[in-house]
Amino acid sequence: MNVNNQAYRTIWLSGEDDTIVKIINQQLLPHNFEIMDLKTVDDFRLAIKDMYVRGAGLIGATAGFGMYIATLEAEDDNINNYTNKVSDILKATRPTASNLAWAVDRVQSVINGVDDVAQKRFLAKQEAIAIANEDAESCRRIGEYGKEIIKQISQKKSGETVNILTHCNAGWLAFVDYGSATSPIYAAHDAGIDLHVWVDETRPRNQGASLTAWELAQHGVKHSLIADNVGGHLMQHGLVDMVIVGTDRTTRSGDVANKIGTYLKALAAKDNHIPFYVALPSSTFDFKITNGLTQIPIEERSADEVRFITGKTECGTRQTIQICPDKTPARNWGFDVTPARLVTKLICERGVCDATEESILKLFPEQK
Ligand code: MRU
C-alpha cells in the first residue's frame, strides 16, 4: 500500500547479498515513519516480541525471514541444531497468532531433508519470500471477496454511506500488504463505494488509533476514531452496517481469537442484528483444534502497557506517561475468543464461508 504516494510492503529483503531484512518500525507510527534493519536472529526475536512488527500475518512473515537469517548465522557444521534452537526462540516470542509457528515450521520443513548447507540457505530464503508473497496475495483476494459483501450492503442502502466498524489493526501493517479486515475496505473504496470506518482505539496499545487510523488516512478512506466502549452505542442507533475484524488464530470449528475486546463487539453486533465478519488468510487457521476457549493460548503482556500510555506531546516529541496511581496493579490479556456462534461469515482467500467446521472444510477439503 502507499505511504505518501510511494508503494511499500511491511517487510522486504535487502542488501547486495540479501542478508538484511527491512521493516517499518510500527512502534513509532503514526508520528514517525521509519524503516529499520533486521540483521541477526536476536533482531528478529526483539522485533516480534516488542512489537516493532505485529499482526498475525506480519509476525508469520517476519518469523519466516528470521529462519532464513538463522541459516546464515549458523556454523556450517551446526546448522540443524542452530535452526532448531532458533525455531523455539521465535515461536516463544508471541503465543497467540498461529501464523508464527506455521511460518517457522514451513521454512524448517523445506530445509530439513537437505544435506548441502548452501542449498539449505537458498531454500530457506526462497521459502521466506514465498510466505511473504503468498500473504500479500491472500490478502488481496480476501479484499475481492469482501468487496462484494460491502457492495451488497451499499446497494441495499441505495448507495448511502456504508458504516463499518473495525477493532485493532487488521490492516496492511498487520500483514505484508493489503490487510485482512481492511482489504475489503480498500477494494470497495477503490471501486467507488461510499463507506466510512469506525476505528476502535484499541487499548491498551492503541493499534486502532495509531495504525488503522494512519493507514486509512494514507489511502483516503473516510474514518472516525472512537473510544473502545462506543461501538455498542453506535450499533443501537443504526450507525454501524457491518463489523469486520481480523483474527490471530481460528479453530476448525470457527472460533476466533482476536485483539482483546473483539468478543464484546461481537456480542453487541449479535444483539443489534449487525453482521460480524472475520477476515483471514488460511495461515491463520489452526486446523488441529476445535475449541477456541480452551485450546487457544492467550498472550498476557506486561501490566505496564495498561498503566502507561504513549503519544506525542505538544512539542512533537514522543512521550510515555502513567495514567493510574503509582502502585496500581494491572493485568493485560492481549486477545479474547469470539465463539463461532457470534460470527456471521469468515472471509478467506478461497472465498466466504460460515463459521462452522462443515463450511470451513468445504473451502479447505485437504484439512478433512
Ligand atoms: O497485538 P497485535 O497488534 O499483534 O494484534 C493484532 C490484532 O489483534 C489483529 O487484529 C490480528 O493480528 C488479526 S489481523 C492480522
Main structural class: alpha/beta
Rg calculated over all Cα atoms: 20 Å
Reported CATH architecture of the largest domain: 3-Layer(aba) Sandwich
Q: What name goes with the CATH superfamily of the largest domain? A: Translation initiation factor eif-2b, domain 2
What is the CATH topology descriptor of the largest domain? Rossmann fold
Question: What are the secondary-structure elements, in order, as H or E?
Answer: EEEEEHHHHHEHEHEHEEEHEEHHEEEEEH
How many structural domains can be distinguished in the coordinates?
Answer: 2
Strand content: 15-25%
Arithmetic mean pLDDT: 98
Strands of the biggest beta sheet: in what spatial order?
Answer: 8-7-6-9-12-17-18
Query: How would you sum up the major sheet?
Result: 7 strands, mixed
The count of DSSP E runs of length 2 or more, i.e. the number of strands, is 18
Share of helix, binned:
25-40%
Report on the structure:
This protein has 368 residues and is an alpha/beta fold. The protein has helices at 41-49, 56-73, 79-91, 98-112, 117-156, 182-190, 207-218, 231-236, 262-271, 292-295, 304-307, 357-363; strands at 2-3, 6-7, 11-14, 20-24, 35-38, 162-166, 195-200, 223-226, 242-245, 249-251, 256-259, 276-279, 285-286, 308-312, 318-322, 335-338, 345-348, 351-353. α2 (56-73) runs antiparallel to α5 (117-156).
